[in-house]
Amino acid sequence: xxxxxxxxxxxxxxxxxxxxxxxxxxxxxxxxxxxxxxxxxxxxxxxxxxxxxxxxxxxxxxxxxxxxxxxxxxxxxxxxxxxxxxxxxxxxxxxxxxxxxxxxxxxxxxxxxxxxxxxxxxxxxxxxxxxxxxxxxxxxxxxxxxxxxxxxxxxxxxxxxxxxxxxxxxxxxxxxxxxxxxxxxxxxxxxxxxxxxxxxxxxxxxxxxxxxxxxxxxxxxxxxxxxxxxxxxxxxxxxxxxxxxxxxxxxxxxxxxxxxxxxxxxxxxxxxxxxxxxxxxxxxxxxxxxxxxxxxxxxxxxxxxxxxxxxxxxxxxxxxxxxxxxxxxxxxxxxxxxxxxxxxxxxxxxxxxxxxxxxxxxxxxxxxxxxxxxxxxxxxxxxxxxxxxxxxxxxxxxxxxxxxxxxxxxxxxxxxxxxxxxxxxxxxxxxxxxxxxxxxxxxxxxxxxxxxxxxxxxxxxxxxxxxxxxxxxxxxxxxxxxxxxxxxxxxxxxxxxxxxxxxxxxxxxxxxxxxxxxxxxxxxxxxxxxxxxxxxxxxxxxxxxxxx
Amino acid sequence: xxxxxxxxxxxxxxxxxxxxxxxxxxxxxxxxxxxxxxxxxxxxxxxxxxxxxxxxxxxxxxxxxxxxxxxxxxxxxxxxxxxxxxxxxxxxxxxxxxxxxxxxxxxxxxxxxxxxxxxxxxxxxxxxxxxxxxxxxxxxxxxxxxxxxxxxxxxxxxxxxxxxxxxxxxxxxxxxxxxxxxxxxxxxxxxxxxxxxxxxxxxxxxxxxxxxxxxxxxxxxxxxxxxxxxxxxxxxxxxxxxxxxxxxxxxxxxxxxxxxxxxxxxxxxxxxxxxxxxxxxxxxxxxxxxxxxxxxxxxxxxxxxxxxxxxxxxxxxxxxxxxxxxxxxxxxxxxxxxxxxxxxxxxxxxxxxxxxxxxxxxxxxxxxxxxxxxxxxxxxxxxxxxxxxxxxxxxxxxxxxxxxxxxxxxxxxxxxxxxxxxxxxxxxxxxxxxxxxxxxxxxxxxxxxxxxxxxxxxxxxxxxxxxxxxxxxxxxxxxxxxxxxxxxxxxxxxxxxxxxxxxxxxxxxxxxxxxxxxxxxxxxxxxxxxxxxxxxxxxxxxxxxxxxx
Lengths: 548, 549
Description:
A: 548 residues, alpha/beta, ABC transporter transmembrane region fold, six-stranded mixed beta sheet, four-stranded antiparallel beta sheet, B: 549 residues, 2 domains
């Protein structure tokens, strides 16, 4: 059965077919040139020696022009086509990479939120950068296979000049070398290579565990103990890497011995041919074995690529879902636990102490977290059954953590409304009380905000996410602690402008906060008292208006 | 090792110098790898000699050639054995270098210089791991690239001084060309590396911002944006590669040309048709020998060029590793306090280097001896950082920490006098007793069990067949969230420390488990100066003093 990644790679191979063919063809020419070059050099020298021994007459009739010209030509061909092979192969790989990365992102975005939002920064870089690089290598190495086959064919033809036995000897040893390489790669290497990967994974777990426990380790004087635990994992890793090196080393011994045996047996069976032909055969055979070695190296790296592919597969198995432009028209929201039904345009405040589950309610509405059946209805539909895309279409959301892009003010705002003009951006910034700050920035809307908008303060980042949410023309606005970290004066200003803007747009509002001011915007306030086991948000008695 | 560690922590060093210092730990294995790789020259000469003599003696029949065929096979096999030795020596050296570097950098988790987060873990694991190829492949290749060509040319000189002269003569422009082209290619590939890094950075950023991307249904647009930028990079990289590969093609061309030159010289010498006088008359064996040796002269240099990527990866990773590594310094030893101290903070400022604003700014706090203070405030307000400050894990950028009326000396902390309980205690593979005993190694088995029972683990001990010997795995298998917090409290009970620091001890617990913990926390706090960072209102209500950040 073909996996999603296989299909993706096959598709890219088709798309890059021109370059890959060119790279393969170049590899063939370069490999043939290398084999013939060495063979002819051997033939030339041996024949020259015989002619030299035979005396000046033989020397002068010896045609040295053609072989010496051939030697130079073949040297140039080998170099030139090796260059073309590498260039085309790498360009094909880069082209494939440019398609695989975005597809990976799309698949990640389409995975269930629990998976998609789970990855840590380290994992993302390991999976999406290093693993994809390993896949890239597979494209580069495709031409090596063609080159190996071509050098084998060229070698067989040249050794055949010394008789079929010589060609047979070469075929035998080249076959053994290739077979051994395949076996090493698929069988002998699999276990140690997996062991190395596991050892690195375990090392990472231990280091992360120790880093997270730094205060505890410090208090109990366990710093050195922790370093020793990590060193023990390091030792296990070194041990497994040594095991892998031994397998690779054993393979190197076998391959080198096979090369020696190939050369010796070609000479042995060709000893009755003329010396120049025997020289041609033995050097061609040695070069052919070197060509087969390239295949060995490429197979070794393929096992890394296969492991990378296996890790990428679970992400890619989620096909990007086509975005629907469907949305419900002005849906109501019904919270059955609280026996509340909000009509479009109404406002609800949600209060309660930290950590009690207020945020969970908003995340269930946003399909960032699965909603328990029977808890929430949007319009007449059960939220647990709704497609996330359809669900999200009804909401503009500013979450508890201000998540911003690395980019400019404009790029961040445009995430919510790609077609918004500057006037709309400024009006949203005004509503969030951030317009003056942005006007003072060196390049206004185009000011670069640094990584994760880190050049803004916490409160400014929060207001920028608020402005972004305000730009999205959705029926409901969902705000999670929108005024956290703001001083009282700024909070009052932001809430007043928000009130005006909502009154003008007719958007509904659900605001989660443990502060009284944001809740005061709302007609009714519910207090959350906890979460049920199925994830259902439980409410305390209804809190009367303007009293959080 | 201390000198090496101080060298690593020296911020002014270039990545190259840092790498040289770091790789010294490879010691004997590194040297063995290089020597074995140089020894390959001898094996290559044996192989070439075997081929040359066999061809030259071919007319003598089997009797004349079999010793040479044997030499040929042995030479080839020796090359394999040496390659195996290089691989294992490289793996061994890389293991030593990485372990040493990691041990030094681990100390960076315990200095008041930075927040310890994902980035530090990535540096400690992937960053150090990036040196693997450098130590195991690049470093031996570099030494061999210097020695092997000259060694082989010297061997060739025995057979034909003139051919050896040709090799030496062509080696010079080869090396100069390689240095020049190498520099140009290095510049190009640095730029390429930087461009790839930028794209990777963009990619990581968008994955990090995935919650926002999903919320605004911007996954399609973001994917398109990534695709456009990837294709842009593809086009630019294509041009870079053209140049980078061209310079290596020029090198290969030089190598091929010089081999052809040797072949043609030998041929004409054998024919006696050289247009100029030479002081030697070659025979077939000697000519064939230098011909077979010629490509080997350039092979080490090409191998070095192929390992260039390893060097680049190591140089890119090294500065971050060095930044994490603290200089070894004489840490003032803090004597553990005997009785619960009064702790006050005077106008304390805490700012991480590179942070945009201080985490704590002008903070005053007085915790009376034996008192209990709760610290509340939104996430990110600096509650945990305040606790880290007392343990010397966060920088005191301004103000004073005063313990029993005396300011804490620079480099000292309250760590030796403190016990700690947090959200997710450290759990190791081992028995329950081992896990608790970590906190106070000199404790007897009975003391450990008493601490466990005081922390409310009595039920667990009594219901499990192995009691205190019940095995736990690293993920805390078999313990509920509440039991893990109790394990942390058991450690606090065990260590006779006069200060108790608690970081969100009840967070992410269900109501019942959290409420069960409250009396245990109060019991642990008795007679100690206690500071609790928390969101939990029940804990806050218990505290006689509350500080809001």
